Amino acid sequence: MSRKWITPIIYTLITLAIFYVGVQMFTNTSSFLSSIIMMIGFAALIYGAIYFFFLRHRTSAPTNGKEMKKYKQAVKQSKQKYKPTNTVKAVKTKDSTSSKNPSPFNSKKNKRKNSPNLRVIQGNKNSKKDRASF
Questions:
Q1: Could you give the dihedral angle defined by the CA atoms of residues 76, 78, 79 and 80, in that order, rounded to the nearest 10 degrees?
Q2: Contact of 32 with 24, CB cutoff 8 Å
Q3: Is residue 108 a part of any domain in this protein?
Q4: In 10 A of CB 26, how many CB atoms?
Q5: How many CB atoms lie within 10 A of CB 7?
Q6: Structural domain count, the chain
Q7: Has UniProt tagged this entry with the keyword Membrane (predicted)?
Q8: Per-residue pLDDT tens for 7-59?
Q9: Can you give the pTM of this predicted structure?
Q10: In a domain? residue 128
Q11: Quick check: is 59 in a domain?
């Protein structure tokens, strides 16, 4: 019941505001434009303050939570997997082993160490049709 008398008041205020904006636009254009720019600036400042103090923490909370923890753990595992082993020793031994021919056994061992872990899935090989019987 109380809403029936509020809606005409709101429509009247909106109509008066539109009328006032039209009158200001045609009679005093420079002050109208400056007041519009000031209103936009104040609205941007208020929105920025609300975002900075209230909304920024809400939107960044999920990324700082479980997702960020999982991401950091994955990065750590990746660095451990692909980190170069003994970089200082490798440089020193490279100079001393450059005069010698490296054995093929060592290169195969290094290739196997860095190769990805692959698994062979064996299917049913006996189910092939014999083409000679056709």
A1: 90
A2: yes
A3: no
A4: 9
A5: 9
A6: 1
A7: yes
A8: 899 999 999 999 998 998 899 999 989 988 999 999 999 999 998 888 876 65
A9: 0.35
A10: no
A11: yes
